[in-house]
Amino acid sequence: MKVPLLDLKEQYKTIKKEVLETAEELFESQYFILGPRVASLEKEIADYCFSKHAVGVSSGTDALLISLMTMDIGVKDTVITTPYTFFATAGSIARTGARPIFVDIDPKTYNISPECLEDAIDSMPRTERERLKAVIPVHLYGQCADMAPILEICEKYDLVVIEDAAQAIGSEYRGKRAGSMGDFGCFSFFPSKNLGAFGDGGMVTTNSNDFYGKLCTLRAHGSHPKYYHKIIGGNFRLDAFQAAVVSIKLKHLDQWTKARQNNAENYRALFKHADMEDVVELPYEKEDRHIYNQFVIRVKERRDDLRRFLNDAGIGTEVYYPVPMHLQACFSDLNYKKGDFPAAEHAALHTLALPIYPELSDDQIEYVVEKIKAFYLKKN
Ligand SMILES: *Cc1c(COP(=O)(O)O)cnc(C)c1O
Predict the structure, then answer these.
(1) Which residues surround ligand 1 with Cβ inside 6 Å?
(2) Domain end (from 208, 227, 250)
(3) Where residue 260 falls among pLDDT bands split at 50, 70, 90?
């Protein structure tokens, strides 16, 4: 049996007709960048995320970058984030000229630990604390970071909060949606995200009218009015075609999320039945809405062998992420070393993402669990 990590072709079948009709209309209009389709998607995403405004941008990475730029974060400044994330989170901080500061994760949820965050800020000398401008919590795998204490700490130290919600559209924390709790929420429409375009795309949400205005200006080179520049922006515009695709998909998102949640439940029941508690740790379960961008297990031992074994059995898996940010070659000048963030380092060595996409069948899920069981029961 084949169980790919992700199969977007199944999903495409269900929206193909609408996408092709919309594409034809759009090509006839020859209106490709920003415009009414982007504007209506912005309204839909703002509503969906319980945010006041949304600004369509070129990618999730650019969503992070433009949020930092809106706060004039740059050289001399520092920004705290997690070492256990996709590269873009840390990369966009560095690209502004600011220095990323890493803080370890909560080993249960893989999200930034509020305790470590507070300790890190408390132990900073005053001069360093004055340079600290923002915190970027990442809602990893589709589950919100522990935002209440994070927001409290950021309020106390007057820090901007930029939520990296690239993996978490629609996920909730105490009734609030990802991207609506901080000053900015950053979303990605990369095709493999839960709400993916047919190319690159992204969105920034904010509840602030001022930030909204500046985001719109920065998105088009800082031009306001046209050809007059008080600030320097970039080309961070979203294509009308990508907006149209995302808009069509958004109507299905809750149903797809439900299917992912059902698959997760299925995995949980099967693993429980398989009696592997001492080797396989399942994703931490909270009451809050988890949208399962990934279903990530942690195994005690032989993760890479397991991965090869599953691959040979036709099962796709992935490691998100094998190298924590503080150990990336490009950040060697930050002077971190192995051992600095034990929880992130342990996760990087022991986690494995299993297929969880909505169209997965019960048989496929059963097969995955069966094979994992076979691997650990195999004598060698
Ligand atoms: C995907 C992702 C991004 C970047 O989004 P792109 O649209 O690919 O630029 C940023 N942060 C996290 C956590 C992501 O998963």
Answers:
(1) 59-61, 85-86, 88-89, 138, 164, 166-167, 188, 190, 200, 202
(2) 250
(3) very high
